[in-house]
Amino acid sequence: MKIAIIGSIHQSGLNILKENNFDILEIVNLEINSLKKELQEVDGIVLRTAELKENVLSKCKNLKIIARHGVGYDNVDIKFLNKNNIALGITGTSNAVSVAEHVMTMFLYLAKKINISDSLVKKGDFIKKNTLPSFFELYNKNILILGFGRIGRELAKRCLSFDTKVYVFDPFIDNEIIKQHNCIPIESKEEGIRVADYISIHMPLNEKTKNFISYDEFKISKNNLILVNTARGGIINEEALFQALKSKSILGAGLDVFENEPPIKNHPLLSLNNILLTPHNAALTLECRTRMSIEACENIIYFLNKNRKLNDKNIVNSNLIKS
């Protein structure tokens, strides 16, 4: 069987495919006409960030599974896959630690304003440390986690080690499960936003979460709030965030994701000094890239071979796939 790799992945995943006697087609030309031609005969696809919509997928006559190299799948036409009984896999167990660490890095960087201290020393102004702005601890602060899947739980574990109070809003998770992780369940995002010193977002982007945090939410937040989004752009209204940061109605923000990627060069958020921006790479540590490569390829192998080792939770639309 033939497997297409769209976007580069770590060699460890390719090795597993070769060991299981799959033919590998590495695709570098992402133009639509090229994809239509190259993908006609493939049985499976390992997909990074390229878009696969109906205009391309309709030409894939042998396609049985797409394995995302990650957990988000807004770049795939899930309706077409469901209609045509094509499986969609994600690497659900691979990226939680890396993303949680990225959030903690942003929390600490923004709270300590470490870049300003670094600049002071490098400019030879060590003795002027009394001119530095106030910076803060995580200790005893209120953390709000929006979404309590694997990443949210890994983040909670790390926040609790700083002796913080961790609040969780996730209407799809039983309160008892949240309590078992030593966190405090809340019934509404408004309740959490009012008490939060730090917020981290770990939800998918959909009709209900689009602009989930916008002007109204910033009106009720603390002015020392640090807000971090490593999930999907569009969950935070970027214009509302810009106004909140510019007016200092919140302390700072960290974004790894944007509504449009890459953001335009004159995007207003790029002009601010109280925001930390990264290029959607929270999950791209070497360790995580290795794990995602292996897990994505194993999803392909186990699914196509009907192997019991397949993690059913990794198949997003498993209820629609014929056994």
Radius of gyration: 22 Å
CATH architecture name of the largest domain = 3-Layer(aba) Sandwich
- Helical fraction equals 25-40%
What share of the residues does DSSP label as strand, in percent? 5-15%
- Taken together, the total number of domains comes to 2
| CATH topology type of the largest domain | Rossmann fold
Strand order of the largest sheet: 8-7-6-9-10-11-12
For this structure, what is the CATH homologous superfamily of the largest domain? NAD(P)-binding Rossmann-like Domain
Attribute tags:
Rossmann fold, 12 helices, seven-stranded parallel β-sheet, alpha/beta, single chain, 323 residues, five-stranded parallel β-sheet
Describe this entry's structure for a reader.
With 323 residues, the protein is of the alpha/beta class. The protein has two domains: 128 residues, Rossmann fold (3-Layer(aba) Sandwich), CATH 3.40.50; 182 residues, NAD(P)-binding Rossmann-like Domain (Rossmann fold, 3-Layer(aba) Sandwich), CATH 3.40.50.720. Helices cover 34% and strands 15% of the residues. It is built from twelve helices and twelve strands. The strands form two sheets. Strands 8-7-6-9-10-11-12 form a seven-stranded parallel sheet, with helices on both faces. It starts with a strand and ends in a 19-residue tail after the last helix. The relative contact order is 0.15. The model has no long low-confidence stretch (mean pLDDT 96).
